[in-house]
Amino acid sequence: MRHRSVADLMTPTAVGVAPETTFKEIARLLDEYDITAVPVVDKLDRPLGVVSEADLVRRHVRGDEDDTAEELMSSPAVVARPEWSAVFAAGVMDREKVKRLPVVDDDGRLIGVLSRSDLVQLFLRRDRAIQEEIVEDVITRTLRLSPSALSVDVTEGRVTLSGTVRDPDLVPALLKLCESVDGVVKVIDRIERRSDVPAGR
In this structure, are residues 190 and 161 in contact, taking their beta carbons and an 8 Å threshold? Predict the structure, then answer.
């Protein structure tokens, strides 16, 4: 199975600002590029932190519009790598309570930004594509079961598995693999476990 990666979903060639960039310049960039946050980078394009619209609003309310990016940013920057799976990146966002991740290359230089809105694409996969991946990759190729052994129904990302399996120990692995398929929102287990079912089913 090939899961979509950060590189597949991120916005490339991200806009970055220097630590000395002013409040007003940052506000102008957010408006010009229609973005909600901007990474703050050093002279080697390595992320130091992130300035968001929320940071600007808070400082505006307090009358601190003379601040620079270095004073405004949330730091240190929580970054992602392009080869990460999108699911793993989503977990990092959730754990770190951030809405976006600057993406860096092997040298730690900024190459893009992954936002929560980018991750929404995962859940826009067509049900048919999800069903085919589960049948072909999970059931047949990975677990080596007959494709007729189980029925896979997918509706708006909700996967319902039904049918009968001979080895009950396979079911937890099957459920976990299905949950990891891009676009799956929930897996419903209606599988019957029967040790008397003939091999190959």
Answer: yes
Q: Which residues contact 23 (CB under 8 A, 6 or more apart)?
A: 56, 59, 64, 65, 66, 67, 68, 72
Name which of 57, 94, 91 is nearest 72 in CA terms.
57
Q: Measured between alpha carbons, how far is 122 from 184 in angstroms, rounded to an integer?
A: 8
Within the chain, all domains assigned CATH 3.30.300.130 are found at: 125-193
CATH of 6-122, one of 3.40.50.1460, 3.10.580.10, 3.40.50.1240, 3.40.50.1110: 3.10.580.10
The answer to whether the Cα torsion of 83, 84, 87, 90 is positive or negative is negative
pTM > 0.85: yes or no:
no
Give the model confidence (pLDDT) of 157-194 as tens digits. 899 999 988 888 889 999 999 988 888 889 999 999 87
* β-sheet with 150-155: strand ranges across: 150-155, 158-165, 186-193
